[in-house]
Write a structure and sequence with these properties.
Distance between the termini: 15 Å
Helix content: 25-40%
Shape: globular
Structural class: alpha/beta
Radius of gyration: 17 Å
Strand content: 5-15%
Protein backbone atom coordinates (compact mmCIF):
# COMPACT_ATOMS: atom_id res chain seq x y z
CA UNK A 1 0.00 0.00 0.00
CA UNK A 2 1.49 3.31 -1.13
CA UNK A 3 0.21 6.88 -1.17
CA UNK A 4 1.11 9.89 -3.28
CA UNK A 5 1.09 13.42 -1.88
CA UNK A 6 0.32 15.49 -4.98
CA UNK A 7 0.85 18.90 -3.34
CA UNK A 8 3.36 19.60 -0.60
CA UNK A 9 5.68 22.53 0.22
CA UNK A 10 8.23 20.43 2.07
CA UNK A 11 11.01 22.81 1.03
CA UNK A 12 9.45 25.58 3.17
CA UNK A 13 11.29 27.06 6.14
CA UNK A 14 8.82 25.39 8.54
CA UNK A 15 10.70 22.13 7.93
CA UNK A 16 14.27 23.44 8.07
CA UNK A 17 14.94 22.10 11.56
CA UNK A 18 13.63 18.55 11.17
CA UNK A 19 13.36 17.73 7.48
CA UNK A 20 15.02 14.31 7.86
CA UNK A 21 12.57 13.25 10.57
CA UNK A 22 9.62 14.46 8.48
CA UNK A 23 10.83 12.49 5.46
CA UNK A 24 11.36 9.37 7.57
CA UNK A 25 7.86 9.69 9.00
CA UNK A 26 6.47 10.02 5.48
CA UNK A 27 8.20 6.82 4.39
CA UNK A 28 6.96 4.94 7.46
CA UNK A 29 3.44 6.02 6.53
CA UNK A 30 3.78 4.64 3.00
CA UNK A 31 4.25 7.93 1.15
CA UNK A 32 6.08 6.94 -2.04
CA UNK A 33 5.96 10.21 -4.02
CA UNK A 34 5.73 13.87 -3.04
CA UNK A 35 5.03 16.56 -5.63
CA UNK A 36 6.50 19.99 -4.91
CA UNK A 37 4.71 23.05 -6.35
CA UNK A 38 6.82 26.18 -6.63
CA UNK A 39 5.70 29.49 -5.07
CA UNK A 40 7.95 32.24 -6.45
CA UNK A 41 11.54 32.81 -7.67
CA UNK A 42 12.83 32.83 -4.08
CA UNK A 43 11.58 29.29 -3.42
CA UNK A 44 13.17 27.71 -6.50
CA UNK A 45 16.60 26.98 -5.02
CA UNK A 46 15.30 25.30 -1.88
CA UNK A 47 12.81 23.28 -3.92
CA UNK A 48 15.55 22.14 -6.29
CA UNK A 49 17.82 21.17 -3.41
CA UNK A 50 15.13 19.02 -1.86
CA UNK A 51 14.18 17.46 -5.19
CA UNK A 52 17.81 16.59 -5.94
CA UNK A 53 18.20 14.91 -2.54
CA UNK A 54 15.91 12.04 -3.60
CA UNK A 55 14.62 11.92 -7.17
CA UNK A 56 12.54 8.83 -6.44
CA UNK A 57 10.57 10.62 -3.73
CA UNK A 58 10.38 14.27 -4.83
CA UNK A 59 8.86 15.64 -8.05
CA UNK A 60 9.29 19.40 -8.54
CA UNK A 61 6.92 21.71 -10.41
CA UNK A 62 7.37 25.27 -11.64
CA UNK A 63 5.06 28.26 -11.31
CA UNK A 64 4.17 31.51 -9.58
CA UNK A 65 1.63 31.33 -6.76
CA UNK A 66 -1.24 33.84 -7.19
CA UNK A 67 -0.46 35.39 -3.81
CA UNK A 68 3.03 36.12 -5.15
CA UNK A 69 1.63 38.07 -8.10
CA UNK A 70 2.26 41.81 -7.65
CA UNK A 71 3.03 44.76 -9.92
CA UNK A 72 6.32 43.14 -10.99
CA UNK A 73 4.63 39.86 -11.97
CA UNK A 74 5.95 40.02 -15.56
CA UNK A 75 9.55 39.99 -14.31
CA UNK A 76 8.67 37.11 -11.99
CA UNK A 77 7.16 35.19 -14.90
CA UNK A 78 10.31 35.74 -16.93
CA UNK A 79 12.30 34.00 -14.21
CA UNK A 80 9.80 31.14 -14.09
CA UNK A 81 9.96 30.75 -17.87
CA UNK A 82 13.77 30.78 -17.77
CA UNK A 83 13.65 27.71 -15.54
CA UNK A 84 11.07 26.00 -17.74
CA UNK A 85 13.41 26.52 -20.70
CA UNK A 86 16.48 25.32 -18.78
CA UNK A 87 15.94 21.63 -19.47
CA UNK A 88 15.39 20.83 -15.79
CA UNK A 89 12.79 18.11 -15.33
CA UNK A 90 9.50 19.47 -13.99
CA UNK A 91 6.34 17.45 -13.54
CA UNK A 92 3.73 20.21 -13.50
CA UNK A 93 3.02 23.91 -14.01
CA UNK A 94 2.14 25.67 -10.79
CA UNK A 95 0.96 26.39 -8.51
CA UNK A 96 -1.04 29.07 -10.25
CA UNK A 97 -4.61 30.34 -10.20
CA UNK A 98 -6.43 33.18 -8.47
CA UNK A 99 -6.67 34.03 -4.76
CA UNK A 100 -9.06 36.78 -3.70
CA UNK A 101 -9.24 35.87 -0.02
CA UNK A 102 -6.54 38.22 1.24
CA UNK A 103 -6.35 40.92 -1.39
CA UNK A 104 -8.22 41.77 -4.61
CA UNK A 105 -5.75 44.50 -5.61
CA UNK A 106 -3.95 42.40 -8.21
CA UNK A 107 -6.89 40.54 -9.72
CA UNK A 108 -6.08 41.57 -13.29
CA UNK A 109 -2.43 40.64 -12.82
CA UNK A 110 -3.45 37.28 -11.35
CA UNK A 111 -5.68 36.61 -14.35
CA UNK A 112 -2.86 37.39 -16.78
CA UNK A 113 -0.43 35.23 -14.82
CA UNK A 114 -2.93 32.37 -14.74
CA UNK A 115 -3.44 32.55 -18.49
CA UNK A 116 0.33 32.46 -19.04
CA UNK A 117 0.55 29.31 -16.92
CA UNK A 118 -2.20 27.73 -19.03
CA UNK A 119 -0.15 28.53 -22.15
CA UNK A 120 2.90 26.89 -20.58
CA UNK A 121 0.92 23.81 -19.53
CA UNK A 122 -0.18 23.32 -23.12
CA UNK A 123 3.26 24.06 -24.55
CA UNK A 124 5.13 21.66 -22.26
CA UNK A 125 2.31 19.10 -22.03
CA UNK A 126 2.37 19.26 -18.24
CA UNK A 127 -0.50 19.23 -15.74
CA UNK A 128 -1.70 22.62 -14.49
CA UNK A 129 -1.89 22.93 -10.69
CA UNK A 130 -4.65 25.41 -9.89
CA UNK A 131 -5.10 27.34 -6.65
CA UNK A 132 -8.64 28.67 -6.13
CA UNK A 133 -9.65 30.72 -3.12
CA UNK A 134 -12.76 32.89 -3.21
CA UNK A 135 -12.32 32.86 -6.98
CA UNK A 136 -14.18 29.96 -8.59
CA UNK A 137 -16.16 32.25 -10.91
CA UNK A 138 -13.00 33.97 -12.16
CA UNK A 139 -11.00 30.76 -12.60
CA UNK A 140 -13.78 28.84 -14.34
CA UNK A 141 -14.51 31.75 -16.66
CA UNK A 142 -10.89 31.70 -17.85
CA UNK A 143 -10.81 27.92 -18.21
CA UNK A 144 -14.11 27.91 -20.11
CA UNK A 145 -12.27 29.99 -22.72
CA UNK A 146 -8.87 28.29 -22.70
CA UNK A 147 -9.62 24.63 -22.04
CA UNK A 148 -9.03 22.11 -24.83
CA UNK A 149 -8.19 18.45 -25.17
CA UNK A 150 -4.49 19.10 -24.53
CA UNK A 151 -5.03 20.68 -21.11
CA UNK A 152 -5.07 18.66 -17.91
CA UNK A 153 -4.37 19.28 -14.25
CA UNK A 154 -5.52 19.37 -10.65
CA UNK A 155 -7.75 21.78 -8.78
CA UNK A 156 -5.58 21.88 -5.68
CA UNK A 157 -7.30 21.90 -2.27
CA UNK A 158 -10.77 21.66 -3.79
CA UNK A 159 -13.45 22.94 -1.40
CA UNK A 160 -16.16 23.90 -3.87
CA UNK A 161 -19.76 22.87 -4.43
CA UNK A 162 -21.06 19.82 -6.28
CA UNK A 163 -21.95 22.06 -9.21
CA UNK A 164 -18.39 23.41 -9.34
CA UNK A 165 -16.93 19.90 -9.04
CA UNK A 166 -19.02 18.70 -11.97
CA UNK A 167 -18.05 21.78 -13.99
CA UNK A 168 -14.38 20.94 -13.43
CA UNK A 169 -14.77 17.26 -14.27
CA UNK A 170 -16.64 18.12 -17.45
CA UNK A 171 -13.49 19.82 -18.76
CA UNK A 172 -12.24 16.30 -19.34
CA UNK A 173 -8.66 16.50 -18.11
CA UNK A 174 -8.90 17.77 -14.55
CA UNK A 175 -8.93 16.05 -11.16
CA UNK A 176 -9.82 17.30 -7.69
CA UNK A 177 -7.03 17.56 -5.10
CA UNK A 178 -8.45 16.60 -1.70
CA UNK A 179 -6.64 17.51 1.51
CA UNK A 180 -7.08 18.05 5.22
CA UNK A 181 -10.26 20.12 4.89
CA UNK A 182 -12.05 16.83 4.17
CA UNK A 183 -11.62 15.88 7.84
CA UNK A 184 -12.99 19.14 9.29
CA UNK A 185 -16.38 18.88 11.00
CA UNK A 186 -17.59 22.01 9.20
CA UNK A 187 -16.62 20.73 5.76
CA UNK A 188 -19.24 20.02 3.09
CA UNK A 189 -16.73 17.98 1.08
CA UNK A 190 -17.95 14.56 2.29
CA UNK A 191 -21.41 15.28 0.90
CA UNK A 192 -20.00 16.64 -2.37
CA UNK A 193 -17.67 13.69 -2.93
CA UNK A 194 -20.43 11.12 -2.54
CA UNK A 195 -21.56 12.30 -5.97
CA UNK A 196 -18.07 12.32 -7.55
CA UNK A 197 -16.25 9.18 -8.75
CA UNK A 198 -13.10 8.44 -6.77
CA UNK A 199 -11.34 8.09 -10.13
CA UNK A 200 -11.50 11.91 -10.29
CA UNK A 201 -9.66 12.44 -7.00
CA UNK A 202 -6.04 12.69 -5.88
CA UNK A 203 -4.73 13.11 -2.34
CA UNK A 204 -2.64 16.01 -1.06
CA UNK A 205 -1.51 17.61 2.20
CA UNK A 206 -0.53 21.16 1.16
CA UNK A 207 1.96 20.86 4.03
CA UNK A 208 2.82 22.81 6.11
CA UNK A 209 -0.75 24.12 5.80
CA UNK A 210 -4.22 22.68 6.46
CA UNK A 211 -3.34 19.79 8.73
CA UNK A 212 -6.13 17.22 9.02
CA UNK A 213 -7.92 16.27 12.22
CA UNK A 214 -6.53 15.35 14.77
CA UNK A 215 -3.66 17.75 13.98
CA UNK A 216 -5.75 20.72 12.85
CA UNK A 217 -4.04 24.00 13.71
CA UNK A 218 -0.58 22.41 13.82
CA UNK A 219 2.07 22.10 11.14
CA UNK A 220 1.00 19.68 8.45
CA UNK A 221 3.34 17.09 6.95
CA UNK A 222 3.17 14.25 4.38
CA UNK A 223 2.78 11.52 7.01
CA UNK A 224 -0.64 12.96 7.85
CA UNK A 225 -1.94 12.02 4.41
CA UNK A 226 -3.07 8.79 6.09
CA UNK A 227 -5.88 10.62 7.91
CA UNK A 228 -7.18 12.17 4.70
CA UNK A 229 -7.04 8.82 2.94
CA UNK A 230 -8.88 7.11 5.80
CA UNK A 231 -11.68 9.67 5.65
CA UNK A 232 -11.90 9.24 1.89
CA UNK A 233 -12.04 5.45 2.30
CA UNK A 234 -14.94 5.84 4.73
CA UNK A 235 -16.85 8.07 2.29
CA UNK A 236 -16.49 5.59 -0.57
CA UNK A 237 -16.83 2.49 1.61
CA UNK A 238 -13.48 1.20 0.41
CA UNK A 239 -10.52 -0.33 2.16
CA UNK A 240 -7.56 1.93 2.84
CA UNK A 241 -5.47 -0.18 0.46
CA UNK A 242 -7.97 0.22 -2.37
CA UNK A 243 -8.19 3.95 -1.72
CA UNK A 244 -4.41 4.16 -1.92
CA UNK A 245 -4.36 2.15 -5.14
CA UNK A 246 -6.98 4.22 -6.95
CA UNK A 247 -5.79 7.66 -5.89
CA UNK A 248 -2.17 6.75 -6.63
CA UNK A 249 -3.18 5.46 -10.05
CA UNK A 250 -5.00 8.75 -10.68
CA UNK A 251 -1.92 10.74 -9.64
CA UNK A 252 0.47 8.69 -11.75
CA UNK A 253 -1.80 9.11 -14.75
CA UNK A 254 -2.12 12.90 -14.46
CA UNK A 255 1.63 13.38 -13.88
CA UNK A 256 2.71 10.67 -16.35
CA UNK A 257 4.72 8.87 -13.68
CA UNK A 258 4.70 5.22 -12.69
Amino acid sequence: MQFIDTHCHLYASEFSNDIDAVINAARKNNICKIFLPNIDPESIQSMHQLAESDKQLFYPMMGLHPCSVKTDYEKQLEIIEHHLLSGYKYYGIGETGIDLYWDKTYLNEQKKSFIQHIIWAKKYRLPLIIHVRESFDEVLEILDTHNDNTLKGIFHCFTGTLEQARHIINYGGFLLGIGGVLTFKSSNLPQVLTNIPIEKIVLETDAPYLAPVPFRGKRNEPAYLFYIAQKLADIYNLSLAETARITSQNANHIFCTS
